[in-house]
C-alpha cells in the first residue's frame, strides 16, 4: 500500500482490523465474507496488525519483553486452574527471541531499554506467536537501523513463502518496489491505481544494496570508554529493583523519626511495643483500602470515592449488627443477626458502588475524576440520610471482633495475598498491567479494556 502521508492508508488498515468503522465494502477471508467489529474478532479470524507508531499503539513501555511478547496469546497460556503457565509462555517467547535475533539481556528486561529495531522485532514476535493468516504491517521499518531493516525484510519474505498474506504500508519507494508483488496506490482516501509485477519476487531490499548491507553487517560500533565511577554506579543501578528508590526514601524517613525519638525523649521511636502495635493496626486498615485502590491506580485511573463508600458500607453493616440491648435500633425486627449478614451487606454496598463507578467510566465515557467525585458526594449524602445523623451503637461482639486485636492484620494479609496472586499469576493481572501500560496498545492486542475478567 503506497501513498503520501495522510492518504488514508493507516485508516484502511485499522478498518480491516476492526479498530475503525468503514462506510462501505466488505472483508473476505478465504473467499468468505466476515464481520470484524473489534481487534479481538480480527485476531480470532487470523489477522494481525503491526501499527505505524510502536510506542503509541504497540508497546507497553513499562512492561518487560516477555510481557509485551505474550500479551496477545495470553488466553492460551491460562491453565485449567486459571493461572498463567509461565514455563510454557517463557519457552515460546525464548524461541521467538532466538528466531528473530532479538538482542536483550533477559526476557525480564523492560522493553523501553531496547533499541528501536529490537522493539519492532518484539512486536513482530508478539504477532508471530498468534500464528496469523493475514499480517498487516504499517511502516514496519520506520525508525530502525539498516541492519534491523534487512532482518525484517528477510522475515517478511519467509512469512510470504509460507503462505501468510502480508499487507504492508510503506512510504519508502525502494521498499515498496523491492518487497511487493502488487502495489496499491492511495490518494486522499481513494485507491488511484493498482500495479502488478510482471515477474513477482519477494527478494528483500538488501538485494538492491548488497554493498551497503555487507558494510552494515560488518560494522562495529565502539563507544567511548566510561569512567570507572560512572560504570560502577550504572551497573549498580541496573542490578537494583526499579522501586528501590521508594524504599530508600521510606528508610530515610524512618531513621529520621528514630533519631528524633532518641534526641527528644531519650527512647526509641519505632522499637516500642505499644507504638508498633498501634502502627501495624492502623496500617492494616489503610492497607485493606489501598489494595483495592491499587487496582485502579495500575490502570492509570483515580478513585475519589473510596472513603465515602467505606463510610456508607460501614453504617449499613453496623445497622444490621445491632443487639437487642440497643435502646433505639434502626431495624427492631433485625437485631441479634449473625455477623455474616451485616458483613455481606457491607460488601454488597461496596460492590454496588464499585460497579456503578465502573459503568459510568467504561460505558458512558465519563472521566474517572468526575464519576468518582459524584459517587463520593452521593455516598456521603446517602450515609447521612441513612443514619439521620444519629450514631449506631450496641453492636454484637461477633461483629466488632473483626476490628479488634490481630484480626485486621490477618484480613489485610489475606486480601493482599489474594490480589498479589491475581495480579501476578492470572489473566486479569496481566491485562490490568497492560491497560495501565498503554490502553491503545491493549485494544490493538485484542483486550476488552471495559471488561477484563
Automatic annotation (TrEMBL):
Provide GO CC annotations from the record.
Answer: plasma membrane
Q: Which domain of life is it from?
A: Bacteria
Q: Which residues form a coiled coil?
A: none
Q: Which UniProt keywords apply?
A: ATP-binding, Cell membrane, Hydrolase, Membrane, Nucleotide-binding, Repeat, Translocase, Transmembrane, Transmembrane helix, Transport
Keyword hit for Transport? yes
Do you know which CDD domains this protein is assigned to? ABC_Carb_Monos_II, TM_PBP1_transp_AraH_like
The GO terms this record gives for MF are: ATP binding; ATP hydrolysis activity; transmembrane transporter activity
Per the UniProt entry, the Enzyme Commission number(s) are: 3.6.3.17
Q: What is its main location?
A: membrane
Q: Which Gene3D superfamilies match?
A: P-loop containing nucleotide triphosphate hydrolases
Indicate how the chain sits in the lipid bilayer.
Multi-pass membrane protein
InterPro entries in alphabetical order: ABC_carbohydrate_import_ATPase (IPR050107), ABC_transp_permease (IPR001851), ABC_transporter-like_ATP-bd (IPR003439), ABC_transporter-like_CS (IPR017871), P-loop_NTPase (IPR027417)
Q: Taking every annotated instance into account, which residue ranges of this chain make up the domain ABC transporter?
A: 1-213
Where are its TM segments located? Answer: 245-264, 276-297, 333-354, 366-386, 406-423
Cite the SUPFAM superfamilies for this sequence.
Answer: P-loop containing nucleoside triphosphate hydrolases
Subcellular localization is given as: Cell inner membrane
Provide the protein name: Inositol transport system permease protein
Q: What is the lineage of its organism?
A: Bacteria, Pseudomonadati, Pseudomonadota, Gammaproteobacteria, Enterobacterales
Amino acid at each position: 500500500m503506497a501513498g503520501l502521508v495522510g492518504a488514508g492508508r493507516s485508516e484502511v488498515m485499522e478498518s480491516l482490523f476492526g479498530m475503525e468503522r468503514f462506510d462501505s465494502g466488505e472483508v473476505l477471508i478465504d473467499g468468505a465474507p466476515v464481520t470484524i467489529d473489534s481487534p479481538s474478532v480480527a485476531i480470532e479470524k487470523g489477522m494481525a496488525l503491526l501499527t505505524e507508531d510502536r510506542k503509541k499503539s504497540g508497546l507497553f513501555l513499562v512492561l518487560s519483553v516477555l510481557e509485551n511478547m505474550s500479551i496477545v496469546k495470553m488466553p492460551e497460556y491460562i491453565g485449567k486452574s486459571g493461572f498463567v503457565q509461565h514455563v510454557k509462555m517463557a519457552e515460546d517467547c525464548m524461541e521467538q527471541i532466538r528466531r528473530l535475533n532479538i538482542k536483550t539481556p533477559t526476557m525480564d528486561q523492560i522493553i523501553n531499554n531496547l533499541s528501536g529495531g529490537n522493539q519492532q522485532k518484539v512486536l513482530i514476535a508478539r504477532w508471530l506467536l498468534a500464528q496469523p493468516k493475514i499480517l498487516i504491517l504499517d511502516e514496519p521499518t520506520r525508525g530502525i537501523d539498516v541492519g534491523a531493516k534487512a532482518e525484517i525484510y528477510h522475515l517478511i519474505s519467509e512469512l510470504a513463502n509460507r503462505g501468510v498474506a502480508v499487507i504492508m504500508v510503506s512510504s519508502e519507494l525502494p521498499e515498496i518496489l523491492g518487497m511487493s508483488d502488487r502495489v496499491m496506490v492511495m490518494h486522499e482516501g481513494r485507491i488511484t491505481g493498482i500495479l502488478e509485477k510482471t515477474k513477482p519476487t519477494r527478494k528483500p531490499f538488501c538485494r538492491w544494496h548488497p554493498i551497503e548491507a555487507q558494510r552494515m553487517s560488518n560494522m562495529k560500533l565502539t563507544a567511548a570508554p566510561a569512567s570507572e565511577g560512572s560504570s560502577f554506579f550504572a551497573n549498580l543501578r541496573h542490578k537494583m529493583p526499579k522501586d528501590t528508590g521508594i524504599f530508600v526514601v521510606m528508610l530515610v524517613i524512618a531513621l529520621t523519626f528514630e533519631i528524633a525519638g532518641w534526641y527528644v525523649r531519650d527512647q526509641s521511636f519505632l522499637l516500642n511495643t505499644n507504638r508498633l502495635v498501634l502502627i501495624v493496626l492502623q496500617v492494616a486498615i489503610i492497607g485493606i483500602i489501598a489494595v483495592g485502590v491499587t487496582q485502579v491506580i495500575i490502570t492509570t485511573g483515580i478513585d475519589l470515592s473510596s472513603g465515602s463508600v467505606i463510610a456508607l458500607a460501614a453504617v449499613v453493616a453496623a445497622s444490621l449488627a445491632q443487639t437487642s440491648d440497643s435502646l433505639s435500633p434502626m431495624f427492631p425486627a433485625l437485631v441479634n443477626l449473625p455477623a455474616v449478614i451485616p458483613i455481606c451487606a457491607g460488601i454488597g454496598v461496596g460492590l454496588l458502588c464499585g460497579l456503578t463507578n465502573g459503568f459510568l467510566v467504561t460505558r458512558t465515557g465519563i472521566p474517572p475524576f468526575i464519576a468518582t467525585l459524584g459517587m463520593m458526594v452521593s455516598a456521603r449524602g446517602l450515609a447521612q440520610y441513612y443514619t439521620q445523623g444519629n450514631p449506631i451503637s450496641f453492636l454484637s461482639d461477633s461483629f466488632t471482633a473483626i476490628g479488634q486485636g490481630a484480626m485486621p492484620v490477618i484480613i489485610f494479609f489475606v486480601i493482599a495475598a489474594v490480589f498479589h496472586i491475581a495480579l501476578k499469576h492470572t489473566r486479569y493481572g496481566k491485562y490490568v498491567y497492560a491497560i495501565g501500560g498503554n490502553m491503545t496498545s491493549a485494544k490493538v492486542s485484542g483486550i476488552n479494556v471495559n471488561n477484563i475478567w
